[in-house]
Amino acid sequence: MADAPVQYVLPLASVALADVPRVGGKNASLGELLAHLAQSGVRVAGGFATDVAAYWAFVAANDLRAVIDGAIDDYLAVRVPLDQAGKRIREAFLAGTLPAAVADAILAAYRALGSPAVAVRSSATAEDLPEASFAGQQETFLNVRGEHALLDACRACFASLYTDRAIAYRESNGIDQRRVALSVGVQPMVRSDRGGAGVMFSVDTETGFPRMVVISANFGLGETVVQGSVDPDEYRVFKPLLDNAQLKPIIERKLGRKEQKLVYAAVGTGTSLLPTSARQQRTFVLTDDEALELARWAVAIERHYGKPMDMEWAKDGRTGKLYVLQARPETVQARRESAQLMTYKLRNAGAKLLTGAAIGEAIAAGPVCLLHSAADIARFVPGSVLVTPITDPDWVPIMKQAAAVVTDHGGRTSHAAIVSRELGLPAIVGTGSATTALRDGQAITVCCAEGDTGVVYDGRADFTVENLDTASIPATRTHVLLNVGNPAAALRWWRLPADGVGLARIEFIISNDIKAHPLALLRPEAVASRRDRAAIGRLTRGWPSPQEYFVTKLASGIARIAAAHYPRPVIVRTSDFKTNEYARLLGGAAFEPHEENPMLGWRGASRYYTDYREGFALECQALARVRDVMGFTNVIVMIPFCRTPAEADAVLAVMAEHGLKRGERGLEVYVMCEIPSNVVLAEQFAARFDGFSIGSNDLTQLVLGVDRDSAQLKSLFDERNEAVTRLIASVIETAHKAGRKVSLCGQAPSDRPDFVEFLVGAGIDSVSVTADSFVRVKNNVAAAERGRGV
Ligand code: PEP
Ligand code: MG
């Protein structure tokens, strides 16, 4: 009997994940999506793939086996350098001819598609594995038109199995160079040249937080985002609330600079890079609804695969339709021990030189090695910090030897960012000016341990690394919550078994992310300094209004903190700057009186119903948006420094005017217990609020009459003083009688184990502490509970 004819080409819709050995990881995954995710509404471009039999037929027909073996042997025996070995193989491939049966099968399938412009992509049999992404190791050819160009592109894809970077990458991952084969995927182009495209991950790429989709987007074809040659728009969407069609759980939309876009070449095949118009740079690529649709697809795809995914998507500008172009397992967070929490802490750092997007959470120091192009990689000094204009997979061979990476351009989803994560290297991408601001040989520290923003410091800083094992933290009946300041760092701590957030101070979000005084944003004309007015103009450029800038930024910051702990409670405290601190915000001086004693001055609740009323209204709008539009109903609002029950009534009335009515849609409002009057009149406060959080910093200051900031009186400032502990015990008792919860969010439990013991004994419901002391406090609480036989 004659052998069945070899099948060189397969429709993508007919392949599945099990076909990786025949069509490579990328094509198998596309087939899988086409077959299984259509019912979830996920749109995938169709097309066909070549079977690896086509590759092997090509290799055999052109005697390429011997060329590959010879070149790889020479390279491994260090007889020839990588670039020469790679070139020898690729040239032999490009000089080869496709066997007629292979070419005929490809062209027949192409005609069956209607001979459109196509994307021709490489899909290697050793790519998209769970432990190695192979990001960008082989070639893709876009906007390929006509039969001739298609066959050329297929051959060039075969040859790209032996790019220098692919050889290096396989070597470092221990993959047999000679057994890998390549399948070619051919798909009609999605007209993203008229629309946009990008990348998305179904987890937070830096922290591994599993409940977030991160989407990057640029106008034009997606390669600019993939290669990291632009700073893309970025969206963060919270997965658990996506099912509710009434909500818009978009935590953040960040407008990228999007300097360039890739479009079809004016004539013939191929693509060309154009500057993006100023208008496009100011415009988001995706609407909110489109970002939500993509995020829902990411969730469906992740669910189907049962693991976090890394995906490429495109939007066809003619039809407005979205497509998924590729899906592969995310590689970094997937490998991480889920119970381990490595924490880097910076000790003494030099001057801040540059900032950009932080990749990973590590810190590294070393001398700068400044390289302008991949052609210079032989100059790289192992152990130094690679500084380049752009991240690109060509750098992989030397990235393995780098201490860290810093680039001018690129976003957090670029290929080299992905590779940096895989290698565990801290990288800061998109600094704008690393290659001009840093000198070759200069010692620097690359710090990615401060949240989303990576910072380059001058000199070698001291830093520590701690490995926390979250599995060994004891359970406690008394809840232990977190005090969270910087929203950018909030996601870092999601692995801690915290019972929620006991104190998120809005003033941190204002000073870190917003920078301007709320009233200066509402009335910039009242700001006397022309420089400050110009700075406010720059901050708010591109926003519908300065108020919208404030509300959106504040809502994003709060939402991030709320997301990290959803559905556990997150207590967000409205602003409690002192007047001198408010005055230091951009444009703030015009709106703040000079006070001799700001600690006892116009602060907290007293501001909200008086001259700061409009600023407070913006805070309320942000909180209402987080709860009602995004859906974070776990957010509890807390009022600081509330001197009298009458003040409480006034503030609650203003809140209700601005969409925050206590008791409506489950809204709980807490009050800080930090003034002796809060304890003395606890019954009256309990009638107005849902709970108390004891501010032991201010309470101790006001009970003992000791300025909390005085170095001279430091030894007198002690929360364990009986005058303080009696008040605390008293408020707990009164509050419990009234059915109210009591927490404590001052500094004391973080520093003093015997204070924790006292609080547990007094029956406190929860304590809230900074993340760095969480494990210690949890152990102390457990010990105190054991001591009391709980
Ligand atoms: C306190 O007073 O204890 C408190 C937690 O608030 P802050 O430190 O912000 O004044
Ligand atoms: Mg306080």
3D architecture notes:
The chain has 790 residues and is α/β, with parallel strands linked by helices. 37% of the residues lie in helices and 21% in strands. The radius of gyration is 30 Å and the shape is elongated. Mean pLDDT is 92; it is low at 128-134. Phosphoenolpyruvate (PEP) binds next to strand 24 and helix 26.
Question: Which helices and strands, and how do they pair?
Answer:
Layout: E1 9-11, H1 20-36, E2 48-50, H2 52-61, H3 64-76, H4 82-95, H5 100-112, E3 118-124, E4 140-144, H6 147-159, H7 164-172, E5 182-188, E6 196-201, E7 212-219, H8 223-227, E8 233-238, E9 250-254, E10 260-264, E11 271-275, H9 278-281, H10 288-305, E12 309-315, E13 322-329, H11 332-335, E14 340-346, E15 352-359, E16 363-370, E17 385-388, H12 396-399, E18 404-407, H13 415-423, E19 427-429, H14 434-437, E20 443-447, E21 453-458, E22 463-469, E23 479-484, H15 487-490, E24 501-505, H16 506-514, H17 518-522, H18 530-540, H19 546-565, E25 570-573, H20 579-584, H21 605-608, H22 613-630, E26 635-639, H23 645-657, E27 669-673, H24 676-680, H25 682-686, E28 691-694, H26 696-704, H27 722-737, E29 741-744, H28 748-751, H29 753-761, E30 766-770, H30 774-787
Parallel strand pairs: 16-17, 17-18, 18-19, 23-24, 23-30, 24-25, 25-26, 26-27, 27-28, 28-29, 29-30
Antiparallel strand pairs: 1-2, 2-5, 3-4, 3-5, 6-7, 6-12, 7-8, 8-9, 10-11, 12-13, 14-22, 15-19, 15-21, 16-20, 20-21
Bound molecules: phosphoenolpyruvate and magnesium ion (MG).
